Amino acid sequence: MAPTKDAKPPSFFVSLPVESLDSSTDFYKSLNFTPLPDFSDDNTAALRFPYSANSNICLMLHAPSRFQEFVRKGSEIAQPKKTTGAIFTLGVGSRETVDGLLDKAQKAGGKKDPFKMKGYGKPLGIYTRSFEDFDGHIWEATTMLDEKEKVEA
Q1: How confident is the model at residue 102, as a pLDDT?
Q2: Which residues form the VOC domain (predicted)?
Q3: pTM for this entry
Q4: Structural domain boundaries, residue 103
Q5: Long-range contacts of 75-83 (CB under 8 A, 24+ apart)
Q6: DSSP label at residue 11
């Protein structure tokens, strides 16, 4: 699983257990994650995060048996539909991109806005919306509001 010599390998990896490697891979590809075949095999799909600011991050989707190889002996794999252990946030450049990402997630079979922040985060100077993937992992898409957007209703 060595990277091709022209590609700069990611420097940060996020690993998630998924029930269906093929379905989850297709879901994330529909959100513009880029497959990294050099880091993938029959039990793991590696995908580079979308948007240039995130391009050094790699999402590693693992079949349950593979994911179990990485956890402490005797520990259980969290069931994200029952327990939220982490929220993953993609920083993007605009409100339109946030909304577009959620539309893509829903079209690909995810769930839009499983939770909502008050004013979608406006009191914090951000615009944030969330989505849930097939396995129940919670993601956010967020962008900073400019000064004009902060004061508009």
Answers
A1: 96
A2: 9-144
A3: 0.86
A4: 85-153
A5: 77/17, 79/136, 80/135, 80/136, 80/137, 80/138, 81/135, 81/136, 82/136
A6: S
